[in-house]
# Entry
Amino acid sequence: MKPISVEDKLAVNKYDVDKDVHIKINEDICKECENHPCLYICPADCYKLREQRITFSYEGCLECGSCQIVCDKEAIEWTLPRGGFGICYEYG
Amino acid sequence: MLVERGKFAGAKNMWGGAFYGPTLSELLPDFWEEAPIERYMARHKFSLLTHDACLSAESTTQKFSQPPYNGFTLLRSKFDRWFASKVEQAGAIVATGLQADGLLHDGNHIIGIKAGGDELPADVVIACDGVNSILAQEAGLQGKILPRDVKQGVKEVIELPRKTIEQRFNLSGDEGVAWEFIGSCTKGLPGGAFIYTNKESLSVGVVVQLGALVEKKIKANELLDEFKGHSSVANLLDGGKLVEYSAHLIPASGIDMMPALYTDGFLVAGDAAAFVVGTGLILEGANFAIASGVAAAETVIRAKQSGDFSTKSLSYYQDLLAQSFVLKDLKTYRKAHHFLANPRIYSSYPELACDLAERIFTNDGKPRKKSWQLLREAMKGRVSFCQIACDLIRGRGAI
# Structure
């Protein structure tokens, strides 16, 4: 099998994306963070470093909860999507 | 009432893919005749990997190919939907698309949940909301989960024709294989990789301790890609089509991270209670989840009969679990996660084993050496006899 990017992997998944954002980050705290563990542990690559700024996009989130566990700066306000929204596994 | 945040039961659930033991057939006899199982577990394979080599062991016995079967592969999205239909048949309401956001309190008593803007009163709330249990944390039973206490699993479901899977994995009919790998697939970090056969797909994944991923700045998804490209794995997946990519956290420290299991009007079950046992050779959680669910139900039925939902009454849950394999197995393997934190298990030993096998089988035209001498050469710079002896003693006490 040819290597597939995370974006293409997520593209085969089924989502019902909510208009409400279920995870919010505090950019002021992220600015002071040196390690950015969120960049490595998000399996959906929702966290990106762009021009020294951490950005977050919630649409591809797999709802694993890793980010809030590894963020020791408490910069992540983590909740789950509203009932019925978010990832919808067809295999699991 | 069963409150499920997914569109249907199973929509939010992923796992590696294998389920073992008699727990479910005790609840639903001969369930495999009706349930959407994928394959029964006829073979177990275990492999040590280096970047360019692989040394494997396989266990197969006719016993595992006969009812009641020792284990199954399942896809949770399909299986859990069926399982929830059994809950409905038994008379419960399955409320899907409803997120349990928090708890209702009356002083120290928990008297229900908040869900989707509504309040749902209950005699007892049973939290089965996974290792990141929002409910157990709000009830004050579970503290913040630490990165060293959980493993991150990432998985791809790869579709292949049924015949191709059976030929490549030496299976006939509904036989299946559970194949675990340790070594270079996690770049020496605590964890491993797996391939489970489904009817017309493979579940292929990597599981790694979350704290180690953070420390080494490694992405589990990249480990998975490298594993899929390994010379001993790539051919098995060739021509396959990715149909799903998923991720999940697994409790990894057993009884050492287990929350208090009950309080006034509240019980914790399954992953939320850290009921998972991993020894490197076995990784089981679903049977613990079902057994704890049954124990929770028996506790609530007993409490309902006496009308007493207090902490004291619900302590019966812990008594039931203490008598069953749930807490007994967790106690048996309570040191397993300490033993499995040893980096030699994931680097030195797989390298040593593969190197020794290569030396034994290499014919370079030179005079042969005895196996013992080859072992000494393979150990050089990797591991000493003293370290092996220490690790064996530690392993004896842990797994």
